[in-house]
Design brief:
Structural class: alpha/beta
Radius of gyration: 18 Å
CATH class: Alpha Beta
Strand order of the largest sheet: 5-4-1-8-9-10-11-12-13
Helix content: 25-40%
Bound molecules: adenosine monophosphate
CATH architecture: 3-Layer(aba) Sandwich
Number of helices: 11
Number of strands: 13
CATH superfamily: Ribokinase
Low-confidence stretches: none
């Protein structure tokens, strides 16, 4: 099974209590595809500028990620600068430069057309919608977004949500999107915009899976929460959310059926990938991870959450 993902491929300047890194490889589609590549085939749609060279390309290639759909344009790649000096759970954005993404016209390579899974990673909702419309036959569509797009591009974002099966966002974004402070009510409101499932990420505290409630009001039984692994040190939270989404959706794509058990395990795999992502700056940790390390940490999660 293959996932096509559209989203930012970027250079990030990041400051955390552990230090500062200038222009390291980042972007939502980058972090997502690296994490998902441990579970299934991944194909990326994005645009980069002349500053994206063989060193950056090699990070994708080493993980076997298909980069045919990463277009080269004249100009600079997407650039983001953020810090986490006050709160490791929430980035403070200092600068966002869309650069080549500002005039990007996504094209779907023929070799991507048989993808059964589509992930609309964080980028302008107008681009997310175009890719969604160009791939009408996919089996399952999930997506992400962030405060930047919720705040100033809400009408376009609502059009994207109509075409989603699963939305993966954090708790602040859920409340902001719904305009409600109760998370459970906000989750139901967000699902009324389209997605039948919502995965709410709680940073270092884990994630909750919500299903659209039925007329019988069975929503409580269909809500599932998994903790995050308590980590001694978080070096850089950038990409944790996208790595969570990559582990979650990559695992779903590797399974024949979307059963409740598969969804629950997918949340665990998402948490596993998120926990690795924060251990080093940028893509450093996940790009050098092994499948054995993933399986070991999955077992740690099982022990952490086991009752008897
Ligand atoms: P997260 O997983 O939520 O920490 O996302 C981190 C990535 O999001 C960074 O590598 C950034 O390059 C990327 N990013 C930041 N702002 C935006 C934006 N407005 N649109 C798309 N991607 C973004």
């Amino acid at each position: 099974m293959a996932i096509t993902v559209v989203g930012s491929v970027a250079f990030d300047t990041i400051e955390t209590p552990s230090g500062r890194r200038e222009r390291c490889l980042g972007g939502a589609a980058t972090h997502f595809s690296l994490a998902a590549s441990f579970f299934t085939d991944v194909r990326v749609i994005a645009v980069v500028g002349e500053d994206f060279g063989p060193e950056q390309e090699a990070v994708f290639k080493t993980r076997g990620i298909n980069t045919v759909g990463i277009e080269r344009a004249s100009g600079k790649s997407f650039f983001w600068e953020g810090s986490y000096l006050e709160n490791l759970n929430e980035a403070k954005t200092h600068n966002t430069e869309l650069n080549v993404f500002g005039s990007f016209e996504p094209k779907i390579p023929d070799s991507y057309r048989d993808s059964e899974y589509l992930f609309l990673a964080n980028i302008d909702p107008v681009l997310q919608k175009r890719v969604r419309e160009a791939m009408p036959d996919v089996k399952l569509v999930a997506g992400d977004t962030m405060n930047y797009w919720i705040k100033d591009h809400k009408p376009a974002l609502l059009e994207v949500l109509e075409g989603l099966d699963i939305l993966v966002i954090n708790d602040t974004e859920t409340r902001m999107l719904a305009g409600m402070s109760s998370l459970v009510k906000a989750a139901q409101e967000v699902m009324s915009y389209g997605p039948r499932m919502l995965v709410v990420k709680h940073g270092e505290y884990g994630a909750t899976l919500f299903h659209k409630s039925s007329p019988k009001g069975e929503s409580a039984e269909r809500t599932f929460r998994a903790p995050a692994l308590p980590l001694e040190e978080v070096v850089d939270p950038t990409g944790a959310g996208d790595s969570f989404a990559g582990g979650f959706f990559g695992y779903l794509a590797s399974q024949p059926h979307l059963t409740p058990g598969v969804l629950r395990r997918a949340i665990f795999y998402g948490s596993v990938m998120g926990s690795f992502a924060v251990e080093k700056f940028g893509t450093e940790r996940i790009a050098n991870l092994t499948r054995e390390e993933i399986d070991e940490r999955f077992e740690m999660f099982r022990v952490l959450t086991h009752l008897d």
